[in-house]
Amino acid sequence: MADYDQELDATGLNCPLPILRAKKALAGMESGQVLRIVATDPGSVKDFDAFARQTGNELMDSGEDSGKYTFLMKKA
Amino acid sequence: MEEKKLAIIATKGTLDWAYPPFILASTAAALGYETQVFFTFYGLQLLRKDLSGVKVSPLGNPAMPMKMPYGPQWFRDVNWNMPNALMSIVPGFESMATGMMKKTMREKGVASIEELRDLCQEAEVTMIACQMTVDVFGFSPSDFIDGIEYGGAATFFEFAGESDVNLFV
Q: Are A13 and A37 spatial neighbours (Cβ–Cβ below 8 Å)?
C-alpha cells in the first residue's frame, strides 16, 4: 500500500464508530493528505465505500489480511 | 454538493430503541447531513442527564435473543427460553437483561448510548425536546442535557418539510 500521513486504529470497534472516528480524523487533516484506517468490523468494507462516495473523499485502496481490513482514504 | 437533511422522530425510551436514532443521526452527520432529532413521549428519556433509567425488557419481546455474555462459547451460544410468566415474577429481571445487553454491546465494540449521544452533540446534531410531552410527564429542563432545544410539532415540520430523509423511530 502507498504512503499515508496519518493512521487510525479502529480495530475492535463496531458500526458506526469506525466511520465516525475516520470522519473526525479527516477533519483534522489537510486536503490531499491520506488517512490509513485499520478495522476489524466486516461491515466497514461496504461502509467506507459508501462513506467515500457520499463525502467526496477518495478511497484509494482497501484490503483484507487475516480479519483486519485496511483502507487508504484521501481527503477531498 | 448541497447539504442533505435528515429528520428523525425518536419516540421510544428503552435501551434497544435508543440505538437507532443516535446511530443514524451521528452517521448522517459524519456523511455531511444536517441532522435534527425530535424527541417526544418516551423518547424524552434519551435526553436525560442520567441514562441509568434506560433499560431493555425481554418481557413481551419474543424476538430478543437471551444469551449469556459470560462463560465458554458453547454456553454463550445457548438461547435461553424464558416464558413471559417467569420473567414477569422474577424481581430484577429487567435490570439483569439490561446489564447483559450493555455488556454484550461493550464486548462487540458497540458504543454506549452516552457515547453516541456525545458524538451527536459534537457533530452539531440538533436535538429538540417536545415541549408538550415535557409538560405532560412533568420533566424539568434541569433533567436534560445542555444544548438541546424545545419545541412542538410545527417546529419539527419546519425542518422536516425540507428534509431529504424523514424517519420515525
A: no
Q: Report pLDDT digits (tens) over B61-112.
A: 888 888 888 888 898 888 888 788 788 888 888 898 999 999 999 999 999 9
CATH architecture type of domain B5-53+113-168: 3-Layer(aba) Sandwich (3.40)
- Residue A19 included in any domain: yes
> How distant is the Cα of B3 from the closest Cα of chain A, in angstroms?
10
Residues of B whose CB is below 8 A from A28: none
Which are the contacts of A30, defined by CB distance < 8 A and separation ≥ 6?
A75
ipTM associated with this complex: 0.86
Taking contacts as CB-CB distances below 8 angstroms, the residues of chain B near A55 are 31-32
- The residues of A that are catalytic are 15
